[in-house]
Amino acid sequence: MQKSVRKALVVLSILCFLSASFAVVASFAQDEDEGFVKRMWKKARGAKQTEEVPKSPEVVVSEEVEEVEVEIAPKEKQVPASEIKVPERLDKEFMLDVMRSNLDAYGNELSGRIPNIVAEALPGEKVAYKFKKETGEIVDFENLDKDKLFVVYRTLLNEANMIRTERMNRQLQQIRQVQQQIQQARPPQVVKPPTLPQIPQPPRIPTPPPQPPRPPQQRR
Q1: pTM of the model
Q2: Rg (CA), the chain
Q3: % helix, strand, coil for the chain, step of 5
Q4: Nearest alpha-carbon partner for 141 in 109, 108, 120, 117
C-alpha cells in the first residue's frame, strides 16, 4: 500500500515538473514570436480587406474630334481685258503722262516687247509711238477709251519696271567686273616689317695714349 502511494506521488511530481517546464518554454517562445505573429496577422487581415473592397470601374474618356470642313477656294478665273475696270483715282490724262515718260526713256525696248506698240519716224529724227489695234489700224493713245487705255498702261508699266531692273543689274555687273580688273592689275603690296626706334647710345670716353716705359733707375 505504501509503495503504491509513493509511486503515485513520484508520478505526480514528475507531471508537475513537466507541466511547469512546458509553461516556461511556451511563454518564452510567445514573447519572441509575438511581433512576427502580429505582423502576419495584420498582413492577412489587410489582404482580406483589399479583396473585399470592390474595384472602381475604369473610366474611358473618349475625346470627340470635331470635324472641320475645309472649303476649297475656287480657282481664280482669268478676267478678259475687256472686263477689267479702271480704278477711279486713275484718270486718262494721268495714264497718258506716265506712258509718255516711259516711252521717252525706254520706247525702243518697249515697242520690241509689246506688239501693240509701234514706232513711227517723224522729221527731225523724232519717233512717235502709237497703238496698233487687232484690225491693224494704228491710232494715237489719246483715241483709246479709258478701259482699253488702262490695259495698255498696266502692260507698259510692268515692262518698263522690268527694263529698269535689268539695266540696274547690268550696271552693277559692270562695276563688279571693273573692280575685279583693277584688283588683278594692281601689283601685290609687300608689307614691310615695322622699324624699331633707334636707342640713343652714351658718348664714348676717349682713352689716354699709352705712356712710354720708364728707364730703370740706377742704384747708388
Answers
A1: 0.44
A2: 62
A3: 55, 5, 40
A4: 117
For cell 592689275, the residue is: 185
Band (143; pLDDT cuts 50, 70, 90): very high
Q: Which of 41-45, 74-78, 215-219 has the lowest mean pLDDT?
A: 74-78
Give the residue from 42, 2, 130, 149 showing the smallest Cα distance to 86: 149
pLDDT top residue among 147 and 17: 147
Q: What is the DSSP letter of 116?
A: T
Report domain extents, the chain: 10-46, 86-184
Establish how many alpha carbons lie within 13 A of residue 95's alpha carbon, considering only the half-sphere containing its beta carbon.
22
Q: What is the mean pLDDT of the chain?
A: 75
**What is the spatial distance between Cα 150 and Cα 141, in angstroms, rounded to a whole number?**
11
| Centroid of chain to Cα 210 | 89
* Residue written as grid cell 474618356: 61
- Closest among 145, 135, 162 to 96, alpha carbons compared: 145
Residues in the chain: 220
